[in-house]
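Review box. Two proteins, two foldings.
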Amino acid sequence: MTNSTLKQELFKQCSAYVAQKFATIQNQIRDVQDGLTSETKSSAGDKHETGRAMLQLEREKLGHQLADIENTKANLQKIEPSAVSKSVILGSVVFTTEANYYIAVSAGTLTIDGQSFYAISPNTPIGLLLMGKVIGDQVYFREAGFEILKVL
C-alpha cells in the first residue's frame, strides 16, 4: 500500500467513525425529543415532572455531545490527506518504535492491512508530544521513551 493510499484509508476510517457517532447522537436526541412529547401528553403529577426533568437533562447532555462531535467533524475537515510534511502535523501518520499514530481525531485503534494505528487528536497528551517532531526525534511519555521512525 502506498503512503498516499494509507493516509487516505486512515482518513476515510476516521470520517466514517465521526459520521457514525454524529448519527447516533442525532438519533438519541430524536428519541429524547419523542419522549418529551409523550411525557407532555401523559398525566400531570410529580412522576410526570420528574420524567420531564430527566429527559431535559438528557437532551442537554446530548446537545453538548453533538457540539463536541461537530467540533471533531470540523477538525477532521481541516485535514488534507495528500499533504506531505517532514514534521508531524494534523493529518500525519507517525511510525515509532512503540506504536503507529494517525494525528487526526480520537477514534481509537484503526487497522489497515493488519497494521494498527492509534487515531489520536493533536490535543491529547501523546498528540501534543508528537506535534512538530521529525524522524529521529525521541519522545518521552509516561516514563517510557520511543523514537520517531517515519512521518507521512
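Next protein.
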Amino acid sequence: MEVVSLPDTQGGVRKRPTGIVGLNLLLEGGFPQGTVIMVHGTAVAGVDLAAQHFCHGNPEETGSYIIPEEIIEKAGPQAKMNPAMLLEQMKGDRIVVDSLSAILQQYGIEQTLFLMSIAKDNVRKTNANLMFIIYTGVHSPMEMTRIMRMADIVIEFKTQVTQAEIERTLAVQKIKGSAVPRRLLPFIITDNGIEASTTSRVV
C-alpha cells in the first residue's frame, strides 16, 4: 500500500495522510484530524481497499478495523444495539467501520445516527479519524442524505464501463468548513490495492 510523507499541517490544521498518494495530494496533505469520513460506492468500486489503505497508512500510528457484521452475529439476532458494542472497539488514531451499511440494515437510521454522533464526539476529543464505508444502491436517498450530513468528509468511488475498459474515479463531495476539490481523481486497482493518479481531471 502507498504511504507518503507530507507536511501534517495545512493552514494550521493538522492532517493525517489517507494512505493513497494521489488522494493526499488532492486533499493537500490528507484528512484533517478529528474528522469523520464517509466513503461510499458499490461493492466492487474499491471502497474497502481505500479503507484498508487508510487503516494501515502509517505504521507509527495505532488503529482499529471494525467489521460490524461479526459483532452483530456474536450478539445474536434478538440483541438490541448497545453503543458500547462498537465504541469500545473504536481505538487508535485510524478507525475504520466496514461497513455502516450492516448497522443501518440491522438497526435502522436512528440507531445508526446515534452511534455516529457519539463516535464523532470521541474522535474530535482525541484528534483521531473515523472512516466508515456505506454501500450505494442499498439504502434510501433520505437515509444516505442524513448520513452524509453527519459526516465531515464525503468521498464517492465511481466505476464506469467505457468501450472495453473499466474507468475508476473518486470524487470528494464534501469537506466541512473547506472548499471541495473540483476534480475527479482517476485510479486503478492493482495487486497492491489502489493506485491513484497524481494528476486529476476537472469536472
